[in-house]
């Protein structure tokens, strides 16, 4: 029968293996376990885990989301700045063309015609060279002596187009204007030159012979 002290009796102790008995320690007995107050109970401490610092390091090939966001924001800002710069440049070019058109005359007509055709203003010098060779810059010039005139279809206007060529090549938005209208005549002559001889011939100022002399259409 077990002892009331909580330690095993002599008879029971004899049955415990020697290796275990040598290490046995008598435990104190709580005299009144059933009446223990909750205030005497111990508290549980939260368990903390130690994380290996090496495991918390960011892999070398990973990207910090904050850095990535800053990089993306920087690129968007650069793109926005580029768009603003482009818009400012286009506005300045349009203002320049407006001024040329407002001044009128041959340069103004050429500038307006190129704008209507949505072509570079850099073509203006070549077009002006052709006009000066064809009509001397006179929008009402009429050729009454060449083969076209002999056929009853004289060349007319700044770029000396015949009526059928004018009707075929004039910019659609200007189709209701007469052949002698300076801007309409330029659009017809330019579109004809590009279609027939290519833009390089237009830019160079028209066709030339082996001596570099202008030979017309």
UniProtKB/TrEMBL annotation:
Domain Transglycosylase SLT: 119-197
Pfam families from the UniProt entry: SLT
InterPro entries reported for this sequence: Lysozyme-like_dom_sf (IPR023346), Transglycosylase_SLT_dom_1 (IPR008258)
Protein's name in the database: Transglycosylase SLT domain-containing protein
Organism: Pseudonocardia benzenivorans
């Amino acid at each position: 029968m077990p002892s009331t002290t909580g330690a095993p009796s002599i008879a029971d102790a004899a049955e415990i293996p020697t290796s275990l008995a040598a290490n046995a320690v008598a435990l104190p007995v709580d005299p009144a376990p059933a009446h223990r107050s909750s205030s005497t109970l111990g508290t549980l401490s939260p368990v903390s885990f130690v994380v290996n610092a090496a495991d918390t390091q960011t892999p070398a090939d990973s990207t910090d989301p904050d850095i990535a966001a800053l990089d993306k924001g920087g690129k968007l800002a650069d793109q926005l700045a580029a768009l603003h710069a482009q818009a400012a440049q286009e506005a300045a070019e349009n203002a320049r063309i407006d001024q040329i058109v407002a001044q009128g005359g041959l340069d103004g007509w050429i500038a307006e015609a190129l704008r209507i055709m949505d072509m570079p203003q850099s073509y203006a010098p070549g077009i002006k060279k052709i006009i000066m060779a064809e009509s001397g810059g006179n929008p009402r010039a009429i050729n009454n002596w060449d083969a076209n005139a002999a056929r009853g279809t004289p060349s007319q206007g700044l770029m000396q187009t015949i009526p059928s060529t004018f009707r075929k090549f004039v910019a659609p938005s200007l189709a209701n204007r007469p052949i002698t209208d300076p801007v309409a005549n330029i659009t017809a002559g330019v579109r004809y030159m590009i279609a027939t001889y290519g833009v390089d011939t237009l830019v160079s100022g028209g066709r030339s012979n082996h001596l570099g002399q202008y030979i017309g259409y």
